[in-house]
């Protein structure tokens, strides 16, 4: 699933029009007394174990309270920024410093409030308050990943001034049994000013007419409905899908189980920048009409059931920065035209049925940070000459291929890897000395890589002094005396080698399985 820089920036774009008049807030303005008492009532209904709202004191004006923004002329409260400060824009959740409790209807007294962000907090599965639908000044509402649960109130459809709406939870909320759902999405068509809609992990499976509802939003630029249990992108009753303003469409993790529909290419904006349909059991081929999206910078069709050859025409999408086609059933060779994608920083073709050699043009993609081609029937030699222009490379996967990684013993790579997966790929017979130049590596997986050599002493010292979490050297013929060696990596597998001497010492952070030191020659 693609991570979008534009999605990260877009809340700022929603926020911008309403901030022009408050760029210097918070400031020592005299706040409205009614609004001050409303905010204190709101605070009283919340649980705040980390004292995030400690500045909300009756002795201070509310315009200097943390998270409260007032209009710099009238002093009226116009924005509440109460996002959990631990929550990042990545998909990794953290506990952080969440607020909880209840959302008080005292907020209704903030009649000029246009921005409300409660995201990343923990409201313990309580429903989204229906009274929020009466706060008609709101242009920005973010309740995402805040552990709200139950039916999303259709009263939110009354917020006709809303530009940005984020309601989704995350995977971690579901683990604790908290999920939002809708029975009917018709209310959303009333949000005529909506530009950005995020409803990830909201259960929409009962809404069979979701396309009709969404297509009524003529200004919609960003639509994220990931993991919403949608099962149909084809609507026979809908003659025309009006998504001509979309720049980002993300529908990953649903269960469409059909071919990519034609409307996607003819009724979406030609200005589409990002398309994510990963994890949907989509069938069939990638149609050449993908060229309609000539401004596309992100295309993620991974984890589907797509077949046939990867189209050569993808090389004409010159603005592509991320191309993810892994975990499908593509066959044939990798198109040489992919070497034309000079802006590409991430290329994933993992686990397909691709054969032949890696196109020479791939080695000229100097912006590549991620190159994942493992689990394919690829052949050929990869030498230091191929890699000399890939100075930005951070992740490399050539595992389970017939590729031969052949470099000189004194080779110094131009890159600093963080992730290296080369299992079942020929790297030996010599132990890869170049690894000692890699100081940012956290994942090293080189099992079954044909190494028949003594593990150099520098390796164990190197492995203990960098943040290397995972080491797998299993199923080689690596030898060496490990007496006195301390292993402090989180996961390490040395099984099925020729190590000898006393068992190495394991620090408390090593995840120990019975077999990780098996089939060696320890005394």
Number of helices in the DSSP assignment? 7
Total number of beta strands: 34
Distance between the termini: 47 Å
Please give the largest β-sheet: 18 strands, mixed
Helix proportion of residues, in percent?
under 10%
| Average of the residue pLDDT scores | 90
Rg value: 27 Å
- Strand content is 15-25%
Structural class estimated from helices and strands: mainly beta
Shape: globular
Poorly predicted segments: 3-10, 17-27, 88-93
Quick take:
The protein is mostly beta strands and 523 residues long.
Which properties best describe this structure?
523 residues; mainly beta; 18-stranded mixed sheet; 6-stranded parallel sheet; 7 helices; 10% helix; 21% strand; globular; disordered N terminus
Would you kindly provide a written description of the structure presented here, covering whatever features stand out?
The protein is mainly beta. It contains 7 helices and 34 strands. It has an 18-stranded mixed sheet, with helices on one face. It has a 6-stranded parallel sheet with strand order 14-16-18-20-22-24. The protein has a 4-stranded parallel sheet with strand order 27-29-32-34, with no helix packed on it. The radius of gyration is 27 Å and the shape is globular. The two termini are 47 Å apart.
């Amino acid at each position: 699933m693609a991570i979008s820089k534009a999605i990260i920036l877009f809340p700022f774009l929603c926020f911008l029009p309403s901030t022009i008049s408050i760029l210097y807030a918070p400031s020592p303005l005299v706040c409205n007394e009614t609004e001050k008492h409303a905010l204190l009532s709101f605070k009283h209904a919340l649980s705040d174990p980390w004292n995030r709202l400690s500045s909300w004191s009756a002795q201070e004006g509310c315009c200097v309270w943390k998270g409260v923004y007032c209009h710099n002329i009238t002093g009226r409260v116009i924005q509440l920024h109460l996002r959990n400060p631990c929550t990042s824009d990545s998909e990794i959740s953290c506990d952080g410093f969440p607020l909880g409790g209840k959302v008080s209807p005292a907020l209704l007294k903030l009649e000029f409030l246009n921005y409300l962000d409660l995201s990343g907090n923990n409201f313990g599965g309580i429903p989204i308050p229906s009274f929020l639908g009466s706060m008609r000044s709101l242009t920005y509402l973010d309740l995402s990943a805040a552990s709200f649960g139950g039916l999303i109130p259709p009263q939110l459809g009354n917020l006709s001034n809303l530009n940005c709406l984020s309601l989704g939870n995350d995977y971690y909320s579901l683990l604790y049994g908290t999920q939002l759902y809708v029975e009917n999405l018709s209310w959303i068509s009333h949000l005529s000013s909506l530009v950005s809609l995020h409803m990830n992990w909201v259960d929409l499976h009962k809404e069979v007419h979701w396309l009709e509802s969404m297509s009524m939003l003529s200004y919609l630029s960003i639509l994220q409905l990931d993991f919403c249990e949608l099962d149909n992108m084809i609507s026979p009753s809908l003659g025309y899908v009006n998504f001509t303003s979309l720049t980002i469409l993300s529908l990953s993790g649903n269960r469409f189980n059909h071919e990519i529909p034609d409307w996607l290419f003819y009724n979406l904006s030609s200005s589409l920048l990002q398309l994510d349909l990963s994890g949907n059991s989509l069938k069939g081929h990638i149609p050449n009409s993908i060229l309609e999206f000539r401004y596309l910078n992100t295309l993620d069709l991974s984890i589907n059931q797509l077949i046939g050859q990867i189209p050569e025409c993808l090389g004409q999408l010159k603005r592509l920065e991320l191309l993810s086609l892994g975990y499908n059933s593509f066959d044939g060779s990798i198109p040489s035209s992919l070497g034309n994608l000079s802006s590409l920083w991430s290329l994933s073709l993992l686990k397909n049925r691709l054969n032949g050699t890696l196109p020479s043009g791939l080695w000229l993609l100097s912006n590549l940070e991620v190159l994942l081609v493992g689990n394919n029937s690829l052949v050929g030699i990869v030498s230091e000459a191929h890699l000399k222009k890939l100075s930005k490379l951070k992740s490399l996967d050539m595992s389970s291929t017939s590729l031969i990684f052949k470099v000189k013993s004194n080779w110094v790579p131009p890159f600093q890897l963080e992730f290296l997966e080369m299992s079942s790929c020929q790297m030996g017979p010599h132990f890869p000395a170049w690894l000692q130049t890699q100081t940012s590596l956290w994942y090293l997986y080189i099992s079954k890589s044909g190494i028949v050599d003594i593990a150099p002493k520098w390796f164990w010292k190197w492995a203990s002094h960098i943040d290397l979490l995972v080491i797998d050297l299993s199923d080689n013929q690596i030898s060496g005396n490990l007496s006195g060696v301390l292993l402090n990596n989180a996961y390490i597998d040395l099984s099925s080698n020729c190590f000898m001497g006393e068992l190495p010492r394991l620090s408390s952070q090593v995840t120990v399985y019975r077999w990780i030191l098996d089939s060696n020659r320890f005394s």
